[in-house]
Design brief:
elongated, 3 domains, 6-stranded mixed barrel
């Protein structure tokens, strides 16, 4: 009963997690009518898909396509300085949205009227968290704040986005405030559309595909296509997507199989123990057959008893689930829970209880009803029952060993991803947001370099390891299509600070500042597109021409779960992010250095807030979800092993009691305790060995296929399979040895008196 209860609790927890993943963005009233527009760019390597589009696209789609009801641009993670009262804040959660954004998306508002954003250019909507941060318990509606020197009025407050939305932001302003973008060569935002009720995905796809060539530029090679809103959470093959808030359909499949494995293990346990215990009373069951009970009656009685047991196990499992849900929610950063008012949850609970009861009861029922009454009255032991029970043990431990191997492989893969060489040094680097100008930045660098402990200072226009600003790039010899590169602006010390190596050419030279405006550095991926000897060639983007002066070695400035994209770097005189390299003597707990940096910043920018981050911690956050998933793998594997051990413990107890007289006779004839232990454990060792031999080739194939889905993957090592076998064997031996030891040390006189 305990194993079945734990298994049911685990299955229900997995079902809640899968449900939570599958209902992303379903809170939107018109979710089935909403699409995100994607860009398919043809180039020298075929094509690439991009989630970011051009600023004028939303307006053009609404004007040209009658099938589209509403459109809106969305741009997030803008770094801004906010002034509320006398307080200054560095914020990175601002979104810039189109006029119809809050008509398309059903974000719940608690105060105010977001529709005013359509007519009031200097307006802002805040989350509850931000409203409380700026105004405390006062009503925020009608109050003003300053965002990058623009005075805006709070018109509405929305509920904090802690629910399932692929879009996340803390406050939003209308795109009219900073001016709508008009460039068609800059992919820097997301475009969403809501279609008319009767427009299908196929119709929209046909309308979007050649939209650019038919309506904007006849020579355009860019193709557009729609992405349904509910598909966004699981689509991870886009060049410029923010992956930190996305799911992975692979995990949904894996946990679905794990849940099925756990339920099957629990049922097999129940069946094995039912048939084992039933053999002790098998003569009574067969007496009922002699007295006239039909096979159908025996089967019905057995199934009803099994249903009663599964109902009790489901109740206990619900209790276990309620106890562990708070811990699970904290760990997964979700808000999972059983809602008895939710018909789907009630149906799931009832289905689990019924399916478990029927599946667990049918086999024992037919097993007991199939024996000849005369033979079974004479003996309760049958070779067929032994073979059937051993087969179930082999099946059970095959699943357990498979889960052990899968867990070890996943942990090795996640560790490999975290430890892969990124191509730059992220250690002992802090960075902070500071909007500078040319003269002040040079002065700031000079003063900061005088602070003891600081080795180097560098700047960048914008920094986020999850967001890219894509720009269409052309070059000499580029004949086909428009290819987008991720564009960046850095100063001459940025690559030196991060210890990024060059494979060709050079960095921005401190002695040639007059040439900085017209030079560009590219990465290895861009070189592969451009071809051999890229140094000296001309790139065309942003309506200008730039000469390539250097090629970076392979670097992963984004998550290694993603493939590297082509990138270019031009020079900036006034970066928005400052990077500081400090020596090893500075630690996280020592605030002396950051206090000096803060004082230096305040001398030049007295009103600027100073909030710094550690670069290594920022990159560690990219893999938090992978780390959590790996831990869940391990937990599920442990639960599976625990369930198997519970069943194995019961079976070893039954086996020991069934051979009590044999053990007593052997001890009287001089058998040692160690010999008795070997005799009792040998059968189980053979079964574990058979399970291992069966499952290893299956697990190798499955894990090999799973690893193929990663851009960067570890190797399948032999030690993983050896360790999995050792773990399974040791756990099995520890489980059965206790019962074997008790049987082996029992007084032989008591053993002979048995039965």
């Amino acid at each position: 009963m305990l194993g079945l209860s734990i298994g049911i609790a685990c299955v229900m927890a997995i079902m809640l997690w899968i449900e939570d993943e599958l209902k992303f963005d379903s809170f939107n009233k018109n979710a089935n009518l909403i699409y995100r527009v994607l860009v398919e760019e043809t180039g020298m390597e075929g094509y690439s898909n991009s989630a970011m589009t051009m600023p004028p696209l939303a307006g053009a789609l609404k004007d040209k396509l009658p099938e589209i009801d509403k459109t809106a641009n969305f741009e997030s993670d803008w770094p801004v300085v906010v002034i509320a009262g006398e307080n200054y804040f560095n914020e990175e959660g601002m979104a810039v949205v189109g006029k119809d954004f809050f008509d398309i998306f059903s974000f719940p508002f608690v105060k105010g009227n977001p529709q005013l954003m359509k007519t009031e250019k200097y307006s802002v909507v805040l989350s509850e968290k931000i409203a409380k941060k700026y105004f405390g318990e006062d009503d925020a509606i009608g109050k003003s704040i300053e965002i990058n020197k623009n005075i805006v009025k709070v018109i509405a407050v929305f509920k904090d986005i802690d629910y399932n939305s692929h879009i996340s932001f803390d406050f939003a302003i209308p795109e009219d405030l900073f001016g709508k973008g008009t460039r068609w060569d800059n992919q820097c935002l997301y475009t969403y559309v809501q279609v008319m009720p009767n427009v299908s995905t196929q119709v929209l796809r046909s309308k979007l595909y050649d939209f650019m060539a038919k309506n904007i530029n006849q020579e355009s090679k860019i193709k557009l296509f729609p992405q349904p809103l509910k598909d966004i959470h699981f689509q991870k093959n886009l060049a410029d997507e923010d992956y930190t808030n996305l799911g992975d359909i692979r995990y949904v499949y894996i946990f679905s199989f794990m849940g099925l494995f756990i339920l099957v293990l629990a049922c097999v346990n129940f069946v094995n123990l039912s048939t084992a215990v039933s053999e002790q009373k098998i003569k009574d069951n067969n007496l009922r057959k002699i007295l006239g009970a039909s096979k159908a009656e025996l089967v019905r009685t057995s199934v009803l008893k099994s249903l009663l047991n599964s109902t009790q196990a489901t109740g206990i499992g619900l209790g276990i689930l309620y106890l562990v849900l708070p811990i699970l929610n904290t760990f997964t950063h979700k808000n999972l829970g059983i809602a008895l008012s939710n018909p789907l949850h009630i149906l799931s609970i009832v289905s689990i209880a019924l399916s478990t009861g029927i599946l667990s009861g049918l086999y024992p029922a037919f097993f007991l009803a199939s024996f000849s009454p005369i033979k079974m009255i004479k003996s309760s032991k049958t070779k067929s029952s032994l073979w059937q029970r051993n087969g179930l043990i082999v099946f059970q431990f095959s699943l357990s060993i498979f889960l052990i191997i899968a867990t070890l492989v996943s942990i090795k893969q996640f560790n490999y991803i975290r430890q892969i060489n990124l191509g730059f040094d992220k250690e002992h680097v802090i960075y902070f947001n500071l909007k500078t100008n040319k003269s002040d930045y040079l002065t700031l660098k000079e003063r900061m370099l005088k602070i003891p402990g600081i080795e180097m200072v560098a700047g960048k226009d914008y920094y986020s390891p999850t967001i890219m600003n894509m720009s269409t790039v052309k070059w000499t010899g580029e004949l086909t299509g428009n290819i987008s590169f991720s564009g960046h602006e850095v100063d001459e010390d940025f690559f030196s600070l991060l210890k990024v190596k060059f494979t060709e050419g050079q960095n921005f030279s401190k002695n040639s500042r007059s040439e900085w405006d017209n030079t560009v550095i590219i990465n290895q991926k861009a070189k592969e597109l451009i071809g051999a000897d890229p140094v000296g060639q001309i790139l065309k983007f942003w309506g200008r021409q730039f000469k390539i002066i250097g090629v970076l070695d392979e670097t992963h400035f984004r998550s290694v779960n993603e493939s590297i994209q082509p990138e270019f770097y031009i020079y900036t005189y006034s970066p928005k992010y400052i990077f500081v390299k400090y020596n090893n003597s500075f630690t996280n707990s020592n605030n002396h250095l950051t206090d000096q940096i803060r004082s230096t910043v305040k001398e030049l920018y007295p009103e600027a807030p100073f909030d710094f981050k550690f670069l290594d911690a920022t990159y560690a956050k990219l893999y938090e979800n992978d780390k959590r998933v790996g831990t869940i793998y391990a937990i599920v594997a442990v639960i599976a092993i625990l369930i198997s051990c519970i069943g194995l413990f019961g079976l070893s107890s039954f086996n020991s009691e069934n051979r009590t007289k044999e053990i007593g006779i052997r001890k009287i004839n001089g058998a040692k305790i160690s010999e008795i232990l070997i005799m009792l454990n040998t059968d189980f060792i053979i079964l574990i060995t058979i399970s291992y031999l069966i499952v290893v080739p299956i697990a190798w194939y499955a894990m090999h296929k799973w690893l193929q889905s990663f851009a960067y993957k570890t190797e399948l090592s032999l030690w993983i399979f050896v360790l999995a076998g050792i773990i399974a064997l040791m756990i099995a031996l520890l489980t059965v040895s206790w019962q074997s030891f008790r049987a082996a040390t029992r007084n032989p006189v008591d053993a002979l008196r048995y039965e």
